[in-house]
Specification:
By secondary structure, the protein is of the alpha+beta class. The protein has a single domain (about 5-90), classed as GIY-YIG endonuclease (3-Layer(aba) Sandwich). It is about 40% helix and about 20% strand. A hairpin with a 6-residue loop joins strand 1 (about 5-10) and strand 2. It is globular, with a radius of gyration of 14 Å.
Length: about 120
C-alpha cells in the first residue's frame, strides 16, 4: 500500500528559526505545530509557518530527504525556500477553516494512527 509522504520546512519568521520534518499527513501536522500540540523544538521556538514542502509516495525516500536537508547548511536551506517562496509566505495560512479546526480539535493529540512524526 502506498502512503503519501511529505517533507516540510517551518520557520518562525522570514530568515528566522527553521525546522525540517516529515509526515504522512501534512494538514494535521501543521495544525499540531500551529496549535502547539507537540512538545519540543517547534513549540519552544514558536516555529509554525510552513515555508516549503514536497510530496511523494515513499516514506523511506521522504525520511532520507529530511535527513539530507537537516544536514545541509542554513544558506542552502534558505535558497531552497526562496526558490519557490521568496517572501516566506505561510503556505498553510488559509488551510485551517472552521471545519478543519473542529475535526482536529476533537482529537488534538496524535492518536498514533499517523505513524510518522
Amino acid at each position: 500500500m502506498t502512503k503519501t509522504a511529505y517533507v516540510y520546512i517551518l520557520a518562525s519568521k522570514k530568515n528566522g528559526t527553521l525546522y525540517t520534518g516529515v509526515t504522512s499527513n501534512l494538514e494535521r501536522r501543521i495544525y499540531e505545530h500551529k496549535n502547539h500540540l507537540l512538545d519540543g523544538f517547534t513549540d519552544k521556538y514558536d516555529v509554525t509557518h510552513l515555508v516549503w514542502f514536497t510530496q511523494g509516495e515513499d516514506i523511506g525516500a521522504a525520511i532520507t530527504l529530511e535527513k539530507k536537508i537537516k544536514n545541509r547548511n542554513r544558506k542552502w536551506k534558505i535558497e531552497l525556500i526562496e526558490a519557490t517562496n521568496p517572501n516566506w509566505d505561510d503556505l498553510a495560512a488559509n488551510w485551517m477553516d472552521s471545519a478543519t479546526t473542529l475535526r482536529f480539535a476533537q482529537n488534538d493529540k496524535n492518536d498514533g494512527s499517523e505513524g510518522y512524526a
